[in-house]
Amino acid sequence: MLEKNKNYIADAYNADKFRNEGHALVDLLADYLDRLDAREENIQVMPQFSPELAYSNWEKELENSESKNLITLFTKVLEEGIHIHHPGYMGHQVNPPAPSAALGGLLNAFMNNGMAVFEMGIPGTSMERAVINVVAKAFGFSENANGLLCHGGTLANLTALLTARACVSEFPVWSSGNKSKMALMVSEEAHYCVERAVKIMGWGSDGIIKIPVDDHYKMRTDLLPAFLEDAKNKGLEVIAVVGSACSTATGSFDDLLEIATFCKENKLWFHVDGAHGAATAFSEKWRFLVEGIHLADSVAMDFHKMLLSPTLITALVLNDGRNQFKTFAQHAHYLWENDDSFEWHNVAKRSFECTKSMLSLPVYTLLYQYGTSLFSEYIDKVNALCQYFQQLILTRNHWELPVAPSCNIICFRYIPSAQSKIVDLNELNKYIREQIVTSGKFYIVQTILKDCVFLRLSITNALTTEVDLKTMLDHADDYAQFYLTI
């Protein structure tokens, strides 16, 4: 119940109260990092709650919430969420953000400078352009490169393909609507958001032409000419090819140089979905994986996957930044004076979003402290850990790799010896994963390749060690042996 005669507004904005709670929160998080580094046994990587129980518990927390200490709430959230910073977290493609980047996120949330026009986001807009310039330089883009930050790779890929439509199509789609049956070509192993973008743009199922992959799960670029010719014969206007850097399931990189050559020859837009792997451009050792990225017309890259930033921060960079003003051509005189000018500083002119968070601040914070050195060191570390795990798998009996890892993603599965009892391999590997997760010591995921279940690691925590990886595989071996005795 509400307290009588209490000034809630004054309490909500009380500086001393905020100072005390803020200090307590930072202490809580710093102690939490120490506990994870010490690998305290009582911290489960993924606490076990059913959806119904979790909802019931949090619904009850709202009862008499005014009498509770805010740090009690924050502690509960911290304890019950999945622990991305835990060295045993090896699951989905989300990295543990660096603490200073998280502090940048706090300042962003507090200032709440909704960036649509320059006057509402002066530091954020300026920092965003600086961040984009750093990324464009890493990609080897032209001096005309520009772009923006947005909330997630799905939105960045959609925006890039809208730009491709505006630049390549024979018709002014934005003003006149679709006059032809458009399509793009992409690897069959590409992220589902590319197909989603096609459907959003109204191209239908025929609008996404999936190119088969080779034994390494890379797009078969040798098939592009035949698929393009077939599309033309069907009356489709192919406007773009999307290269994956890298695919989600296996971490395989398409041959970007081959795709770039094909696109140039056929006057097609070349977009790279580099949500996960485009970051390797920051590493001297690993940038060979994205050879040819400098020839792309546009690239989407997530900072929250491989560059130590909180979710969601994605860069969409265009080789010719002038093209981005063709994407959304609308009148909005309450936001800006001139609809036809290339105003880089009024972000809403070239962004799907209008009011947008100051996404640049967490990234700029890391660049301000470390330049790009932190990025390159991190990429080198997690990729090296994955190479170690590959060698570990190859030294063990009964383990199989569907493909050698390219970066920090690796798939593997257990195959019993011929003398073992006959079992369903998919069920066996599902069981191994379930036991690993419920043990609380590690968190891994699974994927399906050619109808076979594989265990999958995405090593995103640079605090993970070779010992952690070996221990996880030891547990997996034990669970497999136990399953075979049931």
Structure report:
This protein is α/β, with parallel strands linked by helices. It folds into two domains: 113-371, Aspartate Aminotransferase, domain 2, CATH 3.40.640; 375-485, Aspartate Aminotransferase, domain 1 (Alpha-Beta Complex), CATH 3.90.1150. Helices cover 42% and strands 12% of the residues. It is built from 16 helices and eleven strands. The strands form two sheets. It has a seven-stranded mixed beta sheet with strand order 1-7-6-5-4-2-3, sandwiched between helices. A four-stranded antiparallel beta sheet has the order 8-9-11-10. Helix 5 (99-111) crosses helix 13 (360-370) and helix 15 crosses helix 16. The radius of gyration is 24 Å and the shape is globular. 42% of the residues are buried.
